[in-house]
Amino acid sequence: MSVHLRAGRWLPYPVAAGARLRLLCLPHAGAGASAYRQWGAGLPSWIGAAPVQLPGRETRLGERPYHDCRALVTDLAGEVAPTLDHPYAVFGHSLGALLAYELVRELIERGCPPPARLFVSGRKAPQLAETLPPLAGASLDELADLLCRLGGTPRELLGDRKVLALMAPVLRADFAVNESHRYASHAPLDVPITAFAATADARASVADVAAWGARTRADFRRHTLRGGHFAVLEQAPRVTALIAGELAPWS
Question: How far, rounded to the nearest angstrom, does the alpha carbon of residue 5 sit from its chain's CA centroid?
């Protein structure tokens, strides 16, 4: 049976006709749904990429961004839950990995069907203590320094103070979301998890990412990519092929 999902505020792109499984994609800090538009085009036709659009960016630029993780996850789950009448999986990168994990927990607590698999990348497991300094109130120079260390942002943009000032409000809001998260000890998920690590990720080491294995009682797999924080987006063909392989039972 094909997945039929119309576009909306939170899910701005309609899922391709013929898809039998939907892959919800949660973006990294400062990013919007478009970050996954081209990336998702590499998935086989039976997987429909469904990038999530958070408030405060792109098509929702005029809306106030969230600053609290629990409020964001609660509202997102309320939007997603009514659409879960077909198989689905969830993918999140960096901040998106944390949101993806908490979204899955919230949906299961609401009695929704669990996802076929949870995919995370570029973030240490949630039970590990955060080591980054607080960034919700970071100056433009501090934001530029962080983005430079993580990579993925053109240097000409980082050197343009006007552009950086436009990016700053949603970046600070997303960092506030990350900093508001409080891990509470709870049972591991009965959902298989795949974690993508990168060898030179300044945000999460390979060991940090491997610790996601403690968050599931089901199958856990880790794939290591050469590169930095955004390797999972920069190496889209390899990553989408791995995702498709692990979701093959639903093809």
Answer: 20
251 is catalytic: no
Q: What average pLDDT does this structure show over 152-172?
A: 75
**Any alpha helices (H) in the chain, and if so which ranges?**
37-40, 69-80, 95-109, 140-150, 155-158, 161-180, 206-210, 231-234, 236-246
Q: Which residue has the tokens 């939007």?
A: 79
Distance CA 68, CA 247 (A): 32
Show the tokens assigned to 86. 């077909």
- Edge-first strand order for the sheet with 220-225 is 47-51, 21-26, 88-93, 118-121, 193-198, 220-225
Catalytic one of 2, 34, 45, 94: 94
Q: How far apart are CA 112 and CA 77, in angstroms?
A: 10
Confidence tier at 114 by pLDDT (50, 70, 90):
very high
Residue 117: closest CA among 46, 43, 191, 188 = 191
Cα distance from N-terminal residue to C-terminal residue, the chain: 11
pLDDT, average across residues 49-55: 96
Q: For residue 174, what are the CA distances in angstroms to 27, 180, 181?
A: 10, 10, 11
Q: Which of 82, 93, 125, 88 is nearest to 104 (CA)?
A: 88
Q: How confident is the model at residue 2 (pLDDT cuts 50, 70, 90)?
A: very low
Question: Does 36 or 145 have the greater pLDDT score?
Answer: 36
* Contacts (Cβ under 8 Å, ≥6 apart) of 82: none
